[in-house]
């Protein structure tokens, strides 16, 4: 019975592996990912063949050389020729594997002569993309609603694999990624490109891809990076070069306008209601992962803001920690992540939510003044 | 044999102290061996219950039972307990019981140190487990505790984590020194190195690995401690350090460590397969050389855990080639076991069943290891469930199955009773089926792109995870059968003869069952 079970399993493995990419490595959408896939299947089949021979011999012995069948034990216990043979043959097989592996690896690590370069920065728990040849840069955050994660809403098709602002790259061009981190180690992974590279704080890694087909490609952070490691997906949209160029121009324009708007806002002041409403949205998006939606934090890990001395009194210190972060801790500098208006709103929110009721508002101009001190 | 029994009678007046002080102050290798084995089994159940929490959370997508921070504590402490609390102490327990009896020595060479190296362990794990109840929770950075997640970004339980790893390390080093000194000095006359049973040989080599790498682990945790609390920056680029250096140091310990957890298994399997094939082990000498080769190579492959960290191509190639090479001596072992069975006269008692399952399932783990060794494809596999499947094949259906096999094989010698063969077989079949339902589908989850160490996953992985969780619960429950078998066997059962297995070889079978409190007070003569 056991034999049948195991042979059945062994027969199933390659079938299941080929059946669909739902249960196998993806072939991906780049020449490299195709080579990686082919290498994967080659090594897999070699292992299956060796397994068949070794397990076959073992089961032959188990079936035929058993005491209950009257088998009498032989007395041989070594054979130099056989032993040399089964050392040398595997060695030759390994060389056969090493050759394609080496050439594929060398091709993968050649990041020279790129057409486009993107700086990818990981931080707890989001990605930041910056196009080095233009002014465009932005954060990319998980877009799945909290309610889906907490099983209060039905989960969507791309549950946990969707972001608010995907990375956009052109097809048919060599795109180079410079990868780094602002805090702990993350790992930027898109299976369809066969690209996975660690984002190490203080160091810059390189990787590249050249995508053949337009499409949306999804991946995830692959290195344990703390509490919400499971919630920092990577989404990349590959567009034809023309579409990419117009997208990029559009983004540049939008970012220019946003900056102008920012300046204009400095002269205006916002009402408490307005600030609280925007502040809550920003808080949920940027702060709640650590300080929690109820402002109580996680004792011993992330400090609570509800009733905190800094948040209820010292306004300058409060603006300072939000804008500049606190080095040596998980508290990031949000000054370059949020607009002045958003900063003002979220600080106002923290000073008035959860019974903090200071009644104070902070305006974009206040934040700006602080930053220019 | 009669001389040995006569020897025992003489020593009958040496009454061991009774009650708790017998266990607290004992210097007897058999008592200490038993304590190690019970301790490791308790830790196996504790670590196992954490695995049940993990599998329950992963039964469905979405967050149901625990929050992500607690989930990370579970994966971390599960890993630490299974490695340092279950597998390693089980091997040390077997070494304590069996090495003196196998080489014809009266006890371990350093009996007081032996007592100490066991008794500090419960404290180490009490500290680790207690840290889970601290404000901020226990360690949540994975058993690999990569900096800076374990330094700047960890909670204050890190100090306790460091302290407890230090104690575990000291315990292992003392145990290893004891094994080496015992083997080098206390072999019976005529027991030359090349006559030692393979279990003794593999443990001898393991002990050297332990002495070489446990201090490295101690260094790593100490640097984590000073980076976190005393302002050093070993692993912080802002102060001139490098977080990737942490990984080099950790894996320089970590890779030999995985061999520490499998070499003694090779020794156990090399005892059991010949016994139940009624035929001498094939290629004894090549087994010894292969073990030494694996141990030597294990120092040259650490960075295969770090292919995605951005090493230069040259380094990636070097570590890929060295890792591939390890599969040669590993293959030699498997071929030797199959050749031992070939034209033997096999029977299939529970120890043999576990040994056979070991050969197949460990080899499957070796195959996935070979796939992981190929750098360009490791980029795809790394940090996915494919790796989780790999190391559970070699550690659960490898190391732990071999420990089960050893327990069934030597239980008659330890207790003087035969275990219940029916229950043993039930335990085996339940474990074999459930372990495969648990770990085989993980390969597919990993290939399809599921990262490891996540509390929640996309819908594509839902079916696989459900199957895996069911396998997990079944495997967990199956181990309670083992507890039942052992208790039943300790309490009573058919009387075991001195040598209950027809084909078994070795000095341990020349003393009565149960083995008397003192054996080989005068050394036996080995021809
Ligand atoms: C033919 C022999 C083996 C080869 C070629 C091999 C290769 C590898 C490789 C390349 C990895 C890294 C995968 C990755 O993270 O991307 C790995 C992981 C691992 N291997 Fe093996 N391995 C072998 C045997 C073993 C054995 C015998 C054990 C233990 C008994 C073991 C335990 C582990 C563990 C625990 C990990 C994962 C550690 C972690 O990241 O948490 N391996 N193996
Ligand atoms: Cu390794």
TrEMBL record, chain B:
PROSITE patterns (alphabetical): COX1, COX1_CUB
EC code(s) of this entry: 7.1.1.9
Pfam families: COX1
Catalytic activity: 4 Fe(II)-[cytochrome c] + O2 + 8 H(+)(in) = 4 Fe(III)-[cytochrome c] + 2 H2O + 4 H(+)(out)
Pathway recorded for this protein: Energy metabolism; oxidative phosphorylation
Localization terms from the record: Cell membrane; Membrane
Domain of life (superkingdom): Bacteria
UniProt KW Hydrolase keyword: no
Ranges annotated as spanning the membrane: 36-56, 76-97, 118-141, 161-186, 198-225, 258-276, 288-307, 313-332, 353-374, 386-411, 423-444, 464-487
Residue runs in coiled coils: none
Protein's membrane topology: Multi-pass membrane protein
Protein's GO biological process: electron transport coupled proton transport; oxidative phosphorylation; respiratory electron transport chain
Alphabetical list of InterPro entries matching this protein: Cyt_c_oxase-like_su1_dom, Cyt_c_oxase-like_su1_sf, Cyt_C_Oxase_1, Cyt_c_Oxase_su1_BS, Cyt_c_oxase_su1_dom, Cyt_c_oxidase_su1_bac
A GO term, aspect molecular function: heme binding
Alphabetically ordered keywords of this record: Cell membrane, Copper, Electron transport, Heme, Iron, Membrane, Metal-binding, Respiratory chain, Translocase, Transmembrane, Transmembrane helix, Transport
Family the entry assigns: Belongs to the heme-copper respiratory oxidase family.
PANTHER family for this protein: CYTOCHROME C OXIDASE SUBUNIT 1
Entry function: Cytochrome c oxidase is the component of the respiratory chain that catalyzes the reduction of oxygen to water. Subunits 1-3 form the functional core of the enzyme complex. CO I is the catalytic subunit of the enzyme. Electrons originating in cytochrome c are transferred via the copper A center of subunit 2 and heme A of subunit 1 to the bimetallic center formed by heme A3 and copper B.
Protein name, per record: Cytochrome c oxidase subunit 1
Taxon lineage: Bacteria, Pseudomonadati, Pseudomonadota, Gammaproteobacteria, Alteromonadales
Gene: ctaD
């Amino acid at each position: 019975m056991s034999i049948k079970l195991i042979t059945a399993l062994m027969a199933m493995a390659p079938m299941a592996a080929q059946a669909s990419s739902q249960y196998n490595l993806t072939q991906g959408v780049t020449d490299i990912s195709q080579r990686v896939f082919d290498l994967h299947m080659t090594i897999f089949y070699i292992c299956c063949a060796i397994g068949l021979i070794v397990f076959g011999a073992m089961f032959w012995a188990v079936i035929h050389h058993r005491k209950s069948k009257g088998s009498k034990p032989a007395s041989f216990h070594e054979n130099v020729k056989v032993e040399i043979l089964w050392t040398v043959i595997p060695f030759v097989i390994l060389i056969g594997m090493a050759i394609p592996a080496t050439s594929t690896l060398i091709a993968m690590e050649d990041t020279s002569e790129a057409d486009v370069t993107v700086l990818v920065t990981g931080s707890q728990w989001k990605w930041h993309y910056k196009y080095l040849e233009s002014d465009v840069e932005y954060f990319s955050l998980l877009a799945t609603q909290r309610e889906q994660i907490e099983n209060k809403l039905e989960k969507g098709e791309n549950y946990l694999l969707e972001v608010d602002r995907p990375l956009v790259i052109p097809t048919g061009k060599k795109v180079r990624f410079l990868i780094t981190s602002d805090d702990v180690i993350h790992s930027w992974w898109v299976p369809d490109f066969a690209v996975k590279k660690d984002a190490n704080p203080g160091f810059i890694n390189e990787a590249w891809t050249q995508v053949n087909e337009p499409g949306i490609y999804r991946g995830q952070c692959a290195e344990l990076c703390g509490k919400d490691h499971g919630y920092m997906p990577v989404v990349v949209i590959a567009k034809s070069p023309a579409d990419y160029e117009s997208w990029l121009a559009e983004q540049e324009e939008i970012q220019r306008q946003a900056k102008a708007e920012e300046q204009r806002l400095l002269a205006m002041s916002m009402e408490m209601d307005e600030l609280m409403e925007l502040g809550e949205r920003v808080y949920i998006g940027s702060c709640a992962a650590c300080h929690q939606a109820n402002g109580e934090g996680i004792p011993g890990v992330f400090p609570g803001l509800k009733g905190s001395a800094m948040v209820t009194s010292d306004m300058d210190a409060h603006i300072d920690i939000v804008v500049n972060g606190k080095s040596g801790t998980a508290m990031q500098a949000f000054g370059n992540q949020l607009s002045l208006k958003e900063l003002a709103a979220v600080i106002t929110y923290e000073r008035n939510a959860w019974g903090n009721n200071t009644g104070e508002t902070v305006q974009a101009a206040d934040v700006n003044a602080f930053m220019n001190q | 044999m009669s001389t040995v029994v006569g020897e025992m009678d003489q020593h009958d007046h040496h009454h061991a102290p009774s009650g708790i002080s017998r266990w607290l102050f004992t210097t007897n290798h058999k008592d200490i061996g038993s304590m190690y084995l019970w301790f490791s089994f308790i830790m196996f159940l504790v670590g196992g219950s954490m695995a049940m929490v993990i599998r329950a959370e992963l039964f469905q997508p979405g967050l149901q039972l625990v929050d992500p921070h607690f989930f990370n504590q579970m994966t971390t402490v599960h890993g630490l307990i299974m490695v340092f609390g279950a597998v390693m102490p089980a091997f040390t327990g077997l070494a304590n019981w069996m090495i003196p009896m196998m080489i014809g020595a009266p006890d371990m060479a350093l009996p007081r140190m032996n007592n100490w190296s066991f008794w500090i362990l419960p404290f180490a794990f009490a500290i680790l487990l207690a840290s889970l109840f601290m404000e901020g929770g226990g360690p949540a950075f994975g058993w690999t505790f990569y900096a800076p997640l374990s330094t700047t970004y960890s909670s204050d339980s890190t100090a306790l984590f460091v302290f407890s790893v230090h104690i575990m390390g000291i315990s292992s080093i003392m145990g290893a020194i004891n094994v080496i000194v015992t083997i080098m000095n206390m072999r019976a006359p005529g027991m030359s190195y090349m006559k030692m049973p393979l279990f003794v040989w593999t443990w001898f080599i393991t002990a050297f690995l332990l002495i070489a790498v446990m201090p490295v682990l101690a260094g790593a945790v100490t640097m984590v401690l000073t980076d976190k609390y005393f302002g050093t920056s070993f692993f912080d680029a802002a102060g001139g350090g490098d977080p990737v250096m942490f990984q080099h140091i950790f894996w320089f310990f970590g890779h030999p460590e995985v061999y520490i957890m499998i070499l003694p298994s090779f020794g156990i399997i090399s005892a059991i397969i010949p016994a139940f094939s009624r035929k001498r082990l094939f290629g004894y000498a090549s087994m010894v050389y292969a073990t030494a080769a694996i141990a030597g190579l294990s120092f040259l492959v650490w960075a295969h855990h770090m292919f995605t960290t951005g090493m230069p191509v040259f380094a990636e190639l070097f570590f890929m080639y060295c890792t591939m090479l390890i599969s040669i001596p590993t293959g030699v072992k498997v071929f030797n076991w199959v050749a031992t069975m070939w034209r033997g006269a096999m029977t299939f008692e529970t120890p043999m069943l576990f040994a056979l399952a070991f050969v197949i399932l460990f080899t499957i783990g070796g195959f996935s290891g070979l796939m992981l060794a190929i750098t360009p494809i490791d980029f795809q596999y790394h940090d996915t469930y494919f790796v989780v499947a790999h190391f559970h094949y070699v550690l659960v259906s490898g190391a732990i199955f071999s420990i089960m096999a050893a327990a069934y094989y030597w239980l008659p010698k330890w207790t003087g009773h035969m275990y219940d063969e029916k229950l043993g077989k039930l335990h085996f079949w339940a474990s074999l089926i459930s372990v495969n339902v648990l770990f085989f589908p993980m390969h597919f989850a990993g290939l399809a792109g599921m990262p490891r160490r996540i509390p929640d996953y996309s819908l594509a992985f839902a079916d696989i995870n459900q199957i895996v969780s069911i396998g997990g619960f079944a495997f967990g429950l199956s181990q309670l059968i083992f507890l039942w078998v052992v208790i039943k066997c300790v309490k009573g059962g058919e009387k075991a003869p001195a040598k209950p297995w027809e084909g078994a070889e070795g000095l341990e079978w020349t003393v009565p069952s149960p083995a008397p409190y003192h054996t080989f007070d005068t050394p036996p003569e080995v021809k």
